[in-house]
């Protein structure tokens, strides 16, 4: 009987085979564009435009990366994105954890009213113009705070954190109170160490979301020295605007477009590096934090 349970039927074998084929297709769909961009960033532009990808070392070059690191706008945009994403993550995770933990306390006065107010903002908001006017009246225009503060707190993340904290056993807090620990001591010494999975998940969400964002910067920033990397890349990839110092004023338009292709791929690879470096360190917390915070 156990053998019958272990052995798959013919229908199951077919379904498993189809599932494997679909997984391979999905992996190829995701992987091939990444490999194309990575290899394209090291190819000479003439070879890339005429022959496509080439594995001949004679056709490889790092000129695209050299030009990028010699260009002030991309390096400055990369530094700005690091600062904006880090500041945004600290503000977002800090306030989200505090709000989520507070709303997880059973005897919190007015908890239902606060949750209804938060939920209302998930479905209705003032729109782009009122938010812009608010940012302007607060004096945040053309400053890093215009990128960090608006949108730092999201109701969905608060609900995720609240659900996680509600899943922690109350016996831990009760035992700490018997030992004379204050609420602040309980939160810092007991709750936060247990909340590492949800903290890392929220941090990853916040950092990636801000790192890939450019729309707020396009609206709130006028000084190009404050542009994040994604907005600089937007000028290169969409508007095909490249700083003259990166390529050289003496180059013809055709030459500019030729080298622009190489710079585009190199810039995309550089823009993806922080996320690829972060994910392995966050992966062990990611699945646990998402699953625990989304249940109950």
UniProtKB/TrEMBL annotation:
<keyword id="KW-1003">Cell membrane</keyword>
<dbReference type="InterPro" id="IPR000515">
    <property type="entry name" value="MetI-like"/>
</dbReference>
<comment type="similarity">
    <text>Belongs to the binding-protein-dependent transport system permease family.</text>
</comment>
<keyword id="KW-0812">Transmembrane</keyword>
<protein>
    <submittedName>
        <fullName>Putative aldouronate transport system permease protein</fullName>
    </submittedName>
</protein>
<feature type="transmembrane region" description="Helical">
    <location>
        <begin position="21"/>
        <end position="43"/>
    </location>
</feature>
<feature type="transmembrane region" description="Helical">
    <location>
        <begin position="186"/>
        <end position="208"/>
    </location>
</feature>
<feature type="transmembrane region" description="Helical">
    <location>
        <begin position="262"/>
        <end position="282"/>
    </location>
</feature>
<dbReference type="InterPro" id="IPR035906">
    <property type="entry name" value="MetI-like_sf"/>
</dbReference>
<dbReference type="Pfam" id="PF00528">
    <property type="entry name" value="BPD_transp_1"/>
</dbReference>
<feature type="transmembrane region" description="Helical">
    <location>
        <begin position="113"/>
        <end position="133"/>
    </location>
</feature>
<dbReference type="GO" id="GO:0055085">
    <property type="term" value="P:transmembrane transport"/>
</dbReference>
<feature type="domain" description="ABC transmembrane type-1">
    <location>
        <begin position="78"/>
        <end position="281"/>
    </location>
</feature>
<keyword id="KW-0472">Membrane</keyword>
<feature type="transmembrane region" description="Helical">
    <location>
        <begin position="145"/>
        <end position="165"/>
    </location>
</feature>
<feature type="transmembrane region" description="Helical">
    <location>
        <begin position="82"/>
        <end position="101"/>
    </location>
</feature>
<dbReference type="GO" id="GO:0005886">
    <property type="term" value="C:plasma membrane"/>
</dbReference>
<keyword id="KW-1133">Transmembrane helix</keyword>
<keyword id="KW-0813">Transport</keyword>
């Amino acid at each position: 009987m156990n053998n019958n349970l272990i052995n798959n039927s013919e229908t199951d074998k077919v379904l498993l085979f189809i599932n494997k084929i679909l997984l391979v297709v999905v992996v190829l769909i995701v992987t091939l564009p990444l490999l194309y961009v990575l290899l394209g960033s090291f190819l000479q532009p003439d070879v890339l435009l005429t022959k496509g990808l080439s594995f001949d070392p004679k056709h490889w070059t790092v000129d695209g990366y050299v030009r990028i690191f010699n260009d002030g706008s991309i390096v400055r945009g990369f530094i700005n994105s690091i600062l904006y994403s880090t500041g945004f993550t600290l503000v977002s995770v800090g306030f989200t954890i505090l709000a989520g933990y507070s709303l997880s306390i059973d005897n919190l006065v007015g908890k239902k009213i606060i949750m209804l107010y938060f939920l209302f903002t998930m479905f209705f908001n003032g729109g782009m113009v009122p938010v812009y006017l608010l940012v302007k009246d607060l004096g945040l225009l053309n400053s890093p705070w215009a990128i960090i503060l608006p949108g730092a707190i999201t109701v969905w993340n608060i609900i995720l954190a609240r659900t996680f904290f509600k899943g922690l056993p109350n016996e831990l807090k009760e035992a700490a109170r018997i030992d004379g620990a204050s609420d602040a001591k309980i939160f810092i010494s007991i709750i936060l160490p247990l909340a590492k999975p949800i903290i890392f998940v929220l941090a990853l969400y916040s950092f990636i979301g801000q790192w890939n964002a450019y729309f707020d910067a396009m609206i709130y920033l006028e000084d190009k020295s404050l542009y994040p990397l994604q907005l600089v890349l937007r000028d290169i990839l969409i508007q095909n605007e490249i700083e003259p110092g990166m390529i050289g004023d003496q180059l013809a338009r055709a030459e500019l477009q030729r080298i622009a292709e190489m710079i585009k791929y190199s810039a995309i690879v550089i823009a993806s590096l922080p996320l690829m470096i972060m994910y392995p360190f966050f992966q062990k917390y990611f699945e646990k934090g998402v699953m625990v915070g989304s249940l109950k």
